[in-house]
């Protein structure tokens, strides 16, 4: 090198004398030397008038610098050729381009590998957002085309790869089987932004499908230019939820059926105990009374007293047995519930609980009579029995309150 200016020295970090003591090859990146030498040789042979090259240089501190070089041949007074080069420092531009390329690669990798559908629609004729909603929806459907998407998006619409759907207009993807119009209307009405909006497609091949959609529109100067979105297929989750709900419903039906069977068995058993066993015990009680009457006619006072004492003991045992049978029969199926309804049965149960446990129990009943089916009445009554049993066993309460209230939609029992 014969001459260098201050700009080149600043770009490469050398002093002028240091730079003049080196050749272009010394400061050129090794990967660019061969190409530069070939172009320079062609230039000096007169095969090309000039050349321009973006090439890499090594700075004094070993860093990489990009220079945009334009080379020419000039001649001195003795007609001797000299190489003349003008360079522009493009290092920052190259760094920005590299950063942008890296960012784009990351973006493309994210889009391509995402399990969610990601897409971008461009609008050929920007839509005036001041138009009525219906007019905007029609224009969006007509002029929007799919500019970018991933394979996941393509698969949602029955295609294998994104290349098969990119370029299609929105109205080509929307059909009678895919009623997206309500989503478009909601998109416009909500200010061109949707978040986790649920959409249902009636897919003729796969049946009903469910999606969660998020969309954001780009509006500039009152015109909608494009919109981005993501879509997640929730069909499997919705089907699983439906199956689970159906299974739970079946379990509830089965549990209700088993409970009805148990209640029917309890009612039959209570009736048999009350009618058959109760009558038999009462008959025995009457027989004992007659025997006692006969014993009083015996002449031997001592024998008479001994027999009467034994008969009184048997009579007391019968009284206790009759009372126990009555209690068990009532617990199995309280007759008051069948005869007078839930409100009266709860009041009776509260009184019985108070007598057995010693815990004061207040009852607040509804003003109007409740019209409940037998299965609901017995279900609420059994819940009350279990609740009061827990109060007696596990609490140290001195007072309990039971409340039964109802409106048009529900019945509430609290204690």
Kindly describe this structure.
The termini are far apart. The protein is rod-shaped and about 175 Å long. With 415 residues, it is an alpha+beta fold. Helix content is 53%, strand content 24%. Strands 5-4-8-7-6 form a five-stranded antiparallel sheet. Strands 1-2-3 form a three-stranded antiparallel sheet. Strands 9-10-11 form a three-stranded mixed sheet, covered by helices on one side.
H and E order: HHHHEEEHEHEHHHEEEHHHHEHEE
Determine the number of helices (DSSP H or I, runs of at least 4 residues).
Answer: 14
SS elements, strand count: 11
Report the sheet-strand fraction.
Answer: 15-25%
User: How many angstroms does the end-to-end distance come to?
Assistant: 102 Å
Radius of gyration: 48 Å
Major β-sheet, in short? 5 strands, antiparallel
Basic shape: rod-shaped
Uncertain parts = none
Strand order of the largest sheet: 5-4-8-7-6
Task: Quickly give the structural class.
Answer: alpha+beta
The share of residues in helices is: 40-55%
Mean pLDDT: 82
Keywords:
single chain; 415 residues; alpha+beta; 24% strand
Brief rundown of the structure:
This protein is α+β, with helices and mostly antiparallel strands. The protein has helices spanning about 5-10, 15-20, 25, 30-45, 90-115, 135-145, 150-155, 170-175, 180-190, 235-295, 300-330, 335-340, 340-355, 375-395, and strands at about 50-60, 65-75, 80-90, 115-130, 145-150, 195-205, 205-220, 225-235, 360-365, 400-405, 410-415.
